[in-house]
Each structure stands twice: as structure tokens, then as C-alpha cells.
Write a structure and sequence with these properties.
Layout: E1 2-7, E2 10-13, E3 18-26, E4 33-39, E5 46-52, E6 58-60, E7 68-73, E8 78-83, E9 92-99, E10 108-109, E11 113-118
Parallel strand pairs: 2-11
Antiparallel strand pairs: 1-3, 3-8, 4-5, 4-9, 5-6, 7-8, 9-10, 9-11
Amino acid sequence: QVRLVESGGGLVQAGGSLKLSCAYSGRTFTPYRMGWFRQAPRQEREFVSDIIWSGGASYYADSVKGRFTISRDNAKNMLYLQLNSLKPEDTAVYYCAIMPALGGDYDYWGQGTQVTVSS
């Protein structure tokens, strides 16, 4: 059983910053990939960013490139997302997820943390 717990969301003014954290525990394994997704009200869940756990290569959606930074701490089993220059359109529930193996899907998901950006 894999458990993911996000934290760090909140209410912030446009232009502000937040840092999201995701702790994973449970089954002992090294994920292939971990990522952040978000879902705004009445919208589909969308990809935000992900990172290859072992190699560290990271990827971003165009909408957040240059403003968000993903990172991980392998020793602590932690995933982070630094959100800078926040915009009202970044308002969403942010989820972290694990892709256990190359070629697989994101199989494990956290419960999400709310980020609200006021204008």
C-alpha cells in the first residue's frame, strides 16, 4: 500500500509564492516518476510537472514553466513544488502522484491540497 500526503496549500495573493510538499510512505520501492497535477473547478485534471526520481530530469506544463520548480528528496521520500509568481488561474486542487515503472501510468495519488490565488 502506497500513501501520498500533500501539504502546503493555502490562500495567497497574485504574485505570491507557495511551496507544496508530498510525502510518500508504505510499500518500499523507488518510483520511476513522480509528478504534480491540478484540477480547477469544472475542469479536467491537468499535468503540472513531473520528475524522474532517479535521474532528476524534470518536465513542466507550458503554463507554469519558469514559475514553478519541482524537486525531490530521495532520502526523505519527499516531493516538492515551489510555486512562484502565482496567478488567479493557478487556483486548483494540487495532487501528487507516482508512476511506479517506466511505461506505466500514474497509479498512486494523494488526496490533494487546495491552492487559491486571489487577484
